[in-house]
């Protein structure tokens, strides 16, 4: 690596500490020292306990709700900017609030755009994230965005299963592009679930477009929240004659009764990354780490090298 490059340092927000330690170990440097002081009313203040002047900083933290995760990232970006760091990269394995990427009815916010602006104002000079809920969110930023795909860690795992009669499925019409990309890599068929919602997180009706009889089905999605869609789709596919149904979801939000739904469903397994730490154990959930992917991309960014080989779809 060129000696003219600024020093690279990696720091972590609180909730992403375990993943950040894995990324730092894979990168080959120690995780930087941050101390967070908390007031009795819940207000907190992160502090870099080492000089960052002139350095390239990678600040790792997923911004899934509640708001504390996003707020901590913003405070750390601001602290880094005021401490004269030269480059400040916000590494957000999961970019939270991304489902609000457009006005789908009158008088609602476009939260993803607002948060993109706030991150840049706070001090981010670059964004690294993975499997955005909608690709166009990249356009909400004025700074460079490296949008990684978890397919680079999921595809090797899928191939290791050596499933015969493999079919890739999308749990909704919006995920069809992702499903077709996986099917192209795996040379498999594709089926699509069509769902109607009464309101957010409540499905009134679901139908299947395609044949799953005698197939080993893999559902592919960017995130799993309540797991209502996934478990309903798995049940429907087993009813329609599928041999097995498993799901790949990049971000394990898993809110509400999601863990119980997964455990009691017809899913053989749910495969996720560690972009968000799991809140509890579940025998059906398998975690595939994205640490090496982020570490490799961060090294390439720091060395001003291409990362196009990390974009499988």
From TrEMBL:
<dbReference type="GO" id="GO:0002189">
    <property type="term" value="C:ribose phosphate diphosphokinase complex"/>
</dbReference>
<dbReference type="GO" id="GO:0006015">
    <property type="term" value="P:5-phosphoribose 1-diphosphate biosynthetic process"/>
</dbReference>
<dbReference type="InterPro" id="IPR029057">
    <property type="entry name" value="PRTase-like"/>
</dbReference>
<dbReference type="GO" id="GO:0000287">
    <property type="term" value="F:magnesium ion binding"/>
</dbReference>
<keyword id="KW-0479">Metal-binding</keyword>
<dbReference type="GO" id="GO:0004749">
    <property type="term" value="F:ribose phosphate diphosphokinase activity"/>
</dbReference>
<dbReference type="InterPro" id="IPR000842">
    <property type="entry name" value="PRib_PP_synth_CS"/>
</dbReference>
<dbReference type="InterPro" id="IPR005946">
    <property type="entry name" value="Rib-P_diPkinase"/>
</dbReference>
<keyword id="KW-0460">Magnesium</keyword>
<dbReference type="GO" id="GO:0009156">
    <property type="term" value="P:ribonucleoside monophosphate biosynthetic process"/>
</dbReference>
<keyword id="KW-0545">Nucleotide biosynthesis</keyword>
<feature type="domain" description="Ribose-phosphate pyrophosphokinase N-terminal">
    <location>
        <begin position="9"/>
        <end position="123"/>
    </location>
</feature>
<dbReference type="GO" id="GO:0005524">
    <property type="term" value="F:ATP binding"/>
</dbReference>
<keyword id="KW-0418">Kinase</keyword>
<keyword id="KW-0808">Transferase</keyword>
<dbReference type="GO" id="GO:0006164">
    <property type="term" value="P:purine nucleotide biosynthetic process"/>
</dbReference>
<keyword id="KW-0547">Nucleotide-binding</keyword>
<dbReference type="InterPro" id="IPR000836">
    <property type="entry name" value="PRTase_dom"/>
</dbReference>
<dbReference type="InterPro" id="IPR029099">
    <property type="entry name" value="Pribosyltran_N"/>
</dbReference>
<protein>
    <recommendedName>
        <fullName>ribose-phosphate diphosphokinase</fullName>
        <ecNumber>2.7.6.1</ecNumber>
    </recommendedName>
</protein>
<dbReference type="Pfam" id="PF13793">
    <property type="entry name" value="Pribosyltran_N"/>
</dbReference>
<dbReference type="Pfam" id="PF14572">
    <property type="entry name" value="Pribosyl_synth"/>
</dbReference>
<keyword id="KW-0067">ATP-binding</keyword>
<dbReference type="GO" id="GO:0005737">
    <property type="term" value="C:cytoplasm"/>
</dbReference>
<dbReference type="GO" id="GO:0016301">
    <property type="term" value="F:kinase activity"/>
</dbReference>
<keyword id="KW-0963">Cytoplasm</keyword>
């Amino acid at each position: 690596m060129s000696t003219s490059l600024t020093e690279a340092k990696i720091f972590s927000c609180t909730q992403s500490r375990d993943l950040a330690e894995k990324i730092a170990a894979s990168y080959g440097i120690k995780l930087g020292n941050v101390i967070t002081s908390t007031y009795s009313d819940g207000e907190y203040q992160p502090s870099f306990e080492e000089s960052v002047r002139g350095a390239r900083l990678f600040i790792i933290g997923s911004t899934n709700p509640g708001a504390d995760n996003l707020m901590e990232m913003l405070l750390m970006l601001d602290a880094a900017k005021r401490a004269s760091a030269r480059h400040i990269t916000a590494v957000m394995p999961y970019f939270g609030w991304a489902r609000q990427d457009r006005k789908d009815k009158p008088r609602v916010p476009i939260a993803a755009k607002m948060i993109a602006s706030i991150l840049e104002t706070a001090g981010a000079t670059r964004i690294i994230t993975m499997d955005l809920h909608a690709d166009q969110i990249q356009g909400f930023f004025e700074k460079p965005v490296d949008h990684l795909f978890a397919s680079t860690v999921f595809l090797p795992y899928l191939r290791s299963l050596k499933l015969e009669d493999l079919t890739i499925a999308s749990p909704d019409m919006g995920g069809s592009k992702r499903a077709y990309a996986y099917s192209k890599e795996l040379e498999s068929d594709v089926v699509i679930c069509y769902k109607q919602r009464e309101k957010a997180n409540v499905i009134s009706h679901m139908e299947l477009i395609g044949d799953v009889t005698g197939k080993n089905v893999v559902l592919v999605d960017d995130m799993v929240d309540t797991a209502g869609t996934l478990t309903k789709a798995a049940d429907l596919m087993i009813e329609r004659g599928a041999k097995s149904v498993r799901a790949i979801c990049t971000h394990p939000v898993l809110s509400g009764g999601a863990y119980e739904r997964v455990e009691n469903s017809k899913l053989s397994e749910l495969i996720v990354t560690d972009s968000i730490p799991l809140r509890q154990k579940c025998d059906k959930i398998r975690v595939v780490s994205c640490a090496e992917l982020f570490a490799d991309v961060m090294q390439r960014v720091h060395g001003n090298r291409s990362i196009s080989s990390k974009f499988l779809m």
